[in-house]
UniProtKB/TrEMBL annotation, chains A, B:
Quaternary structure and interacting proteins, as annotated: Part of the FGAM synthase complex composed of 1 PurL, 1 PurQ and 2 PurS subunits.
Subcellular location: Cytoplasm
Gene: purS
GO biological process, one term: 'de novo' IMP biosynthetic process
Catalytic activity: N(2)-formyl-N(1)-(5-phospho-beta-D-ribosyl)glycinamide + L-glutamine + ATP + H2O = 2-formamido-N(1)-(5-O-phospho-beta-D-ribosyl)acetamidine + L-glutamate + ADP + phosphate + H(+)
Source superkingdom: Bacteria
Protein name: Phosphoribosylformylglycinamidine synthase subunit PurS
HAMAP family per UniProt: PurS
Any GO CC annotation of this UniProt entry: cytoplasm
Protein family per UniProt: Belongs to the PurS family.
Species this protein is from: Flavimaricola marinus
PANTHER family assigned to the protein according to its UniProt record, in alphabetical order: PHOSPHORIBOSYLFORMYLGLYCINAMIDINE SYNTHASE SUBUNIT PURS (PTHR34696:SF1)
């Protein structure tokens, strides 16, 4: 059994209103010096797979098909 | 300038309907062997701070105050 972690972020240049909202809220709470905020999602998967290489190939296909919108999002796969 | 990454996940035992939805969707797409899925969020911050220790203390306070709902979510702070 393997664990995989997928991190999906909006690509650079794509407007991130969630991140902007967090940045404003932090400023309103008195946190200075926050120059930029980007918010993304992380998906942790428990896989029956035993080969790390197979698991990574599989999870990459999951990203392409479902987990990320590759037009505006980039993703990173880590296998543990 | 420092970069911080905060990962916020629902605590173990807290129902994760988003993760469940992803698990079902992966099954429907023919991906077998996905035994569990948890979905969380990741927040990347650009900080004016120059001390890593100060940055970590600051970001931890941001988590407690805004970024995580510590009743049901756990968070992890990484400084780079």
């Amino acid at each position: 059994m393997m664990k995989a972690r997928v991190t999906v972020m909006l690509k650079t240049g794509v407007l991130d209103p969630q991140g902007e909202a967090v940045r404003h809220a932090l400023g309103a709470l008195g946190f200075d010096g926050v120059e930029g905020v980007r918010q993304g999602k992380v998906i942790e998967l428990d896989l029956a797979e035993t080969s790390a290489a197979e698991a990574e190939a599989n999870v990459t296909r999951m990203c392409e098909k479902l987990l990320a919108n590759t037009v505006i999002e980039s993703y990173r796969v880590e296998i543990a």
